[in-house]
Design a protein that fits this description.
The chain is of the alpha/beta class. It has 2 domains: 153 residues, 3-Layer(aba) Sandwich (Rossmann fold); 82 residues. Helix content is 46%, strand content 10%. It has 11 helices and 6 strands. A 6-stranded parallel beta sheet has the order 3-2-1-4-5-6, sandwiched between helices. Strand 4, helix 10 and strand 5 form a beta-alpha-beta unit. Helix 2 packs across helix 5 and helix 3 crosses helix 4.
């Protein structure tokens, strides 16, 4: 017997089944690595702020307020700005021990990779949604601010599903501004050979939802992994789910 959908469920179902492609954020949407990022950022700034006793300590809310979904070095700059701290930029390959924007960003990356090396388990509901999208013939891409996206996809066993991955490395090489600008999502759509209007954006971060809503995309599906349903809706999400299994 076919599964029956309520009117709201039908609206959600058609919000992606009438599109040609799904553009996924990675951390917090496909894999629980957003939690790993949170841990890495907290470890970074807890350590750094020990040298700045006059500044307020790192709080859990800082991740969502200043860092979540942004390119790594933008996250460093915006967090420091929230504490009225200005550091030298430093070279891109700056030593992780240096107190510069690039040094702190590189230090965070080391912490993150040490944690991810133990393996990554994707969200089961997200895997089911990927399978459903592929079964309907939709194209898939990952659009992530992280420079570690290919490694995370490989560790999660998902890389074979995504012929297009636009990550922080690609954005930098192409001169694309990071989220909340829609440029990286637009670029992924072009690589898939599709207009943005035929692509759905799936995001858990406020900056990512803003990127989708400020572009000309088919729809923007918010996934609430902690940012808050109403906050994601206010940022421009078409609707919000707790898990992508709700769309299958």
């Amino acid at each position: 017997m076919p599964k029956l959908h309520s009117s709201a469920q039908n609206d959600r179902f058609s919000s992606w089944t009438t599109a040609s492609a799904i553009l996924f954020d990675l951390d917090g949407v496909l894999t629980p690595t957003a939690v790993v990022h949170e841990r890495a950022w907290q470890e970074l700034f807890d350590g750094y702020l020990e040298s700045v006793p006059s500044a307020a300590g790192y709080r859990e809310s800082d991740y969502f307020d200043h860092i979540d979904g942004k390119p790594r070095f933008d996250g460093v700059r915006d967090f420091l700005a929230s504490r009225s701290i200005v550091l030298p930029e430093g070279p891109a390959d700056d030593d992780p021990s240096n107190a510069t924007v690039q040094g702190l960003g590189n230090r965070k990356n080391l912490v993150f990779n040490e944690i991810v090396a133990g393996g990554v388990e994707p969200y089961e509901g997200s895997v089911r949604f990927i399978e459903a999208a592929l079964a309907r013939g939709l194209k898939l891409a990952v659009v992530s601010s992280s420079r570690n996206a290919p490694a995370v996809l490989e560790a999660a066993g998902l890389s074979h599903h995504f012929p297009v991955v636009v990550d922080g490395v690609v954005a930098a090489s192409e001169g694309l501004p990071g989220k909340p600008d829609p440029a990286t999502y637009d670029y992924a759509a072009r690589l898939l050979g599709l207009p943005s209007e035929e692509c759905v954006v799936v995001e858990d971060a406020v900056s990512g939802v803003k990127a989708g809503s400020s572009g000309k995309f088919h729809s923007v599906i918010g996934v609430d992994r902690g940012a808050g349903r109403q906050i994601l809706l206010a940022a421009g999400a078409t609707f919000v789910v707790n898990d992508l299994i709700e769309l299958v």
